[in-house]
Amino acid sequence: MIYLFTGDDAKKKIEAYEKFLKSLPKGTETFTINHNNFNEMEIESFYSSAGLFFTKCIVVFQSILDREEKKDFILKKLSFFADSNNDFVFLEGKLLKPALEAFKKNKTEINLFELPKEKKEKFDNFLLANALGSKDKLNLWIYYRQAMDKGVGLEELVGVLFWKVKDMILKKSFGKWKEGELKEIANKLSYLLPEARRSGSNEEEVLEKFLLEIF
Fold this sequence. Notes:
The protein is α/β, with parallel strands linked by helices. The protein has nine helices and five strands, in the order E-H-E-H-E-H-E-H-E-H-H-H-H-H. It has two domains: 2-117, Rossmann fold (3-Layer(aba) Sandwich), CATH 3.40.50.300; 125-213.
């Protein structure tokens, strides 16, 4: 059986997910998979064979589908998950229609939690860019966390930060920065997320650490 908890109403989604976990029989073997320990062969073993020390287990995937290569692998395996003796649980952000349809076609219990449209707030990415331009460490971190809470994509944030730094360099408007510092920041931003993905690091934590350490 497959269980999916998805949507942008994080509070209700987490509450439902935690309630589900508490409802599991006591002693149920549970495995958690995230970006840091994602292993295709291990995942295949969960649906293709029984465990040595348990007859049934729960495999929990946390925020796996936000990376294209992992999403493609998982969606291709959903039919195997559905037919397995083990259960597979997905805790994800908001998914696009093709991914949702793939789950629907494979015996998935879908728990969808969406915020009412009037409650959704769009984050102003330029608040983050301007805080960097002003060399304002405190507000840079505050705006970064606000952006994360509102679900802004990391690529989008890195893009606006890179644009801000390049704009300052081109206009020779360095503010409290030195030209060399800005060039170094632009250089690091250009490969920050790709490098984090290659190393299997948490991209959100990598970007936050970078923003705090550039001062």
